[in-house]
Amino acid sequence: MKLTADQVKKVAKLANLPLSDEEIEKYSGQLSKILDYIDQLNSADTSEVEPTFNVTGLSNVLREDKVGESLPQEEALQNASQVKDGFFVTKGVFEE
Amino acid sequence: MSDSDLTKLTLIETIKGLKNKQFSGEELNNTYRERIKQLNPKLNAYLWTAEKSSGIPAAIKDIIITKNIPTTAGSKILEGFIPPYDATVIERLKVKGIGVVGKTNCDEFAMGSSGENSAYGVAKNSWDLSKVPGGSSSGSSAAVASDMCVFALGTDTGGSIRQPASLCGVVGLKPSYGRVSRYGAIAMASSFDQIGPITKTVADARQVLEWISGPDGYDGNCVEEGFRVKGKGYGENLKGLKVGIPKEYFGKGLDQGVEKVVREAIKKLEELGAEIVEVTLPHTEYGIAAYYIIMASEVSSNLAKYDGIRFGGTRDKFGDEAKRRIMLGTFALSSGYYDDYYAKAARVRTLIKEDFAKAFEKCDVIVGPVSPTVAWNLGEKTQDPLTMYLSDAYTIPASLAGIPGLSVPCGFVNNLPVGLQILGKYMDEETILNVGEVYEKATSWHKEKPKI
Amino acid sequence: MKYEPVIGLEVHVELNTKSKMFCRCSADYFGKQPNTHTCPVCLGLPGALPFTNKEAIKKCLQIGLALNCKVVDLSRFERKIYFYPDLPKGYQISQYRWPLCVEGWLEVEDKDGKVSKIKINRVHQEEDTGKLSHIGGVTLIDYNRSTVPLVEIVTEPDFTDPSQVKDYAKKLQQIFRYLGVSSADMERGDMRLEANVSVRPAGQKELPNYRVELKNINSFRFMTAAIEYEIKRQIEALEKGEKLTQETRGWNEAKRDTYLQRSKEEAHDYRYFPEPDISELRVKSDELRIKEEIVELPNRKAKRFVADYGISRQNAQVLVDSKELAGYFEEAIKLGREKQLKPQEIANYIVNQKIKLASKDQVLRAVEDLAGKRVGILEDEVKIEKIVAEVIFENPNSVEDYQKGKLNALQALIGGVMRKTQGKVNVEKVRRILESKLQN
Description:
Chain A contains 3 helices and 3 strands, in the order ααβαββ. By secondary structure, chain A is an alpha+beta fold. Chain A has a domain at about 5-40: Histone, subunit A, CATH 1.10.20. The longest helix of chain A has 18 residues, at about 20-40. Chain A is flat and about 55 Å long. Chain B has one domain (about 5-445): Amidase signature (AS) domain (Amidase signature (AS) enzymes, Alpha-Beta Complex). Chain B is about 35% helix and about 15% strand. Chain B is built from 14 helices and 11 strands. An 11-stranded mixed sheet of chain B has the order 1-3-2-4-6-5-10-11-9-7-8, with helices on both faces. The model of chain B has no long low-confidence stretch (mean pLDDT about 95). Chain C contains 13 helices and 15 strands. Chain C is elongated and about 100 Å long. In chain C, α5 (about 300-310) packs across α6, α7 (about 325-340) packs across α8 and α11 (about 395-405) packs antiparallel against α12. Classes of the chains: A alpha+beta, B alpha/beta, C alpha+beta. The interface of A and C includes residues 57, 68, 84 and 85 of A.
């Protein structure tokens, strides 16, 4: 499977990754090569096989509805790049 | 006791020495901190070290969250991040009197097999400073190998404990998926990640596993009761034990020197009373491909939280390998590709899991090499990501199946250590640790120390 | 050409659990200081993991079962990946391929009282996001609401009229409140509506090849207005020969029109895949037990009121508006029985007088009032005396018995007066008048 530079650009946008033109070129080549390798999965016969999403085989792991401790506000905010009046701050986004 | 004698002690011996007042905790910590000061500039195993420390000095991979101690996951994006909480394993170790003597270097977000993807410079192999220590728990393995800590914690996603342990000549245990809570282990690929010990002996690994395992109410995949050390009585021989040898782990790509060492180790197991049986893991060839799709898909979502708002820097701070995996995973999950990639890989994962289940009908443990080669030169594989990925061919299948795996030192090729991989049934760490310990007692590879 | 609307509705409702969906922070976030109800999990800090709240799952199942859904054998959480500052993990834990409940229905009425069945595609569990406020070019973020449990209910595109949509939304709100799973307050954002609107030539069977998603709707009234506007806009566009495409539009209440938010080209690719941190859900076996625990819902209750108490359907619908009101009405019936008040009278009285029954005291007072009023009708002594005189004249035997000293005979005469007045007279008053007349 070949990934063109255009496709790489689209994927980068979807992944919210700022990539330079140089990186787009590089990843186009590298990802194509990796996807070629991955294509060998097609020769594995999985027609009668259920997928494994979780190897534990567990189900219904649930907790009781009990309130525990929250972080103090200053600890919640301690790693933020910008803070105002107890809020995290980011550059303006429009409401969806 | 001389300083280097003190740092040579195993965890079990250190506990005993403290108990018998052969040395004080302060002495112990001063000696280790002094040794770190001497050696770390050469090895770059630690990214952060404690100015003051107490308790039994443990080295913690920097991908494990430590409250009020900088935690970077080897990434520039987390430079300066001071977590407001402790990982479950850290809480548990603290209760047992273990102190964090330092945070160890690793590939960025545990993505790598050589340590070279760390944003803070590569850690070096203590046996040869021009070689990689393996990865991603590179600093933890290097720190144990060079006696810069009593033991270390690493994380294993596709081999990141076993492979660097093998390349550094120390013991590394990847527990079964779900044995140890992942709460506080910065996620790389959530359905694979496990925290485990990197130690000087198998008995040490067993002790650490007891301390850190068991449910905590924060990791929903960790509900199995904690692992318990059964006191004395670990076997002196392997009579009645069936050791499976998968032919797929001895094929093309396996270094002849490594093969020879591993085959000798298998012969030793036979001498110790084990019955050697041939088993087959027919879907091994698909392991890397399936792993890279599932892992990268999980990575692409796990690294979506890094937006520079609540912590860390902006998304341009990701390193090359992190970006590559985010891109691969984003593509694999994007509209129209889910069935061909993610769902297909999840089905192949079932085949690999079933391979092991069938093989374990014929044997108690499966044994083979950890890594197809010994430690390679720094920079040797950095230009070609795929070649780097292929070096994990023997560790990835167990990660896909969620079963436990142990790496124990089993010899040298060109003065570089080789590890023997012992894989067990799901949640049967007991048996692989027992096999490892019997082997260890019958050999002296683990006593070899690098000259730095 | 004549066009007909095709409308589907997506409703989000926030559950009133004590703790959040995937962490132990208090879910009671409304009006609290920003970022004081957060922890590593709901802040999306590195290393944190979700752990599922059992009560939330139960409430989601209750909603599904109340809407006549089937509980699936196997359900899974999935990651829905997108970037927005209110979403701390960069993905929302939601359900896409494996929702908890599917294939339900709810009966709705349109403005003319015509009843139709709306099919419900799915009822699934997910988590809420943080809250953004936009001030002076920057965005402030409060994560107190992050990972509060949210249930999403999605209908098939079965609505053909905005009045049906309104009735559906109101009924859902009523059901949430009956179940006690949410206060379902629209203004607080406990309940949020999104409508998918398109139009097609009347009689066409196939669904239109586009749909317009309407967001930003925070009241039933705005929803009706937005849908009506949108239908009109789309029909006009089609009549002008324009081609309509998939897009998201918001409702602007000030201008009373909809505006473009996102076109098809910008449509999201959410990259859903199974959430690896959470194992699968197999809760089919809880279906029966949860079903049995569900309270009598408004629709059934109204039907029972009509059948058991003989009240009108209109009155029944008003009286089941809330579980509390319906309960007090039934208490009032019990009290009224002692005062010879019929259920119909009580129902009429409560509905016509718009009495707000909000406590046991108010119920008691209402019944007393009603009883008092009814007696009041025949407080006219002249009228009563006239009736008493009639009864005396018509029952000479009883009069004779009474005068012989058989006091029981007075009861028979009182009964006669009660019959003639249909009980609308004070017994003591009748007794007094009777006694005085018989002594004369």
